[in-house]
Amino acid sequence: RFIKQEGPCWIVASIENLELGKGWSYVSCKKCQKKVDKVGKIYQCPNPKCKNEDNSAVIRYKLQVRVMDTTGSVSLLLWDREAMFLIGKSAKELKEGFLANTGVVDKYPYPVELNNVLERKFMFKVIVKSSNIQLQQEVYSVVKLTDEEQLIRKYSPDPPSFDLTDSTEESELTDISKTLAKMSLTNAATVVEEDPNTQLSGNKIKRVFKKKKTT
Fold this sequence. Notes:
The chain has helices at residues 80-87, 91-102, 130-134, 149-154, 170-182, and strands at 7-19, 25-28, 37-39, 42-44, 53-54, 58-61, 63-69, 72-78, 121-128, 139-146, 188-190. It has a five-stranded mixed β-barrel with strand order 1-7-8-10-9. Strand 4 and strand 5 (53-54) form a beta hairpin. It is built from five helices and eleven strands. Among the domains are: 7-24 and 62-155, CATH 2.40.50.140; 26-60. By secondary structure, the chain is an alpha+beta fold. The model is unreliable at 179-215 (pLDDT under 50).
């Protein structure tokens, strides 16, 4: 079931699969971190607000995964900081190691280190955009995550219920936001690159969590 309101949303779910149809990394501008075009030996940034040209660029993560909770599954997009936090290596390190082992860049196989994200449960802050609602695009950008066990246990009661619900008190949501904001990178990752259409409003949390399925 699709979320019907735009804005930030907290979910707790486990990463079940990698979705590598569009790869797992991209070549980015050094200044604005958008994807660059290579013209000859020069990397050109198509961002009209940047238009940077350089003879080198930066490899960053853009990793899509499938996560699952008790209500179903959705696809999440992990950007550079989140993916690096989970995998433990930069996209550049992974790419260089992969090339050293295979000698070629291929869609498959992929670096085995990507498997480090599988079968792990996290609390994700995702952004619901208008395209998710109007076009029913089931891919949500992650802007923050944590593996803090206390928070995960609190919002994953036994029997498991991986979603926060409308019954969650507003004060509890505020506490979560403040707690995550104070965490170091050893416990939580914050996005360093966002989809150009993504707009955040600080730590504001809307009560737009996915409903549980009824029979």
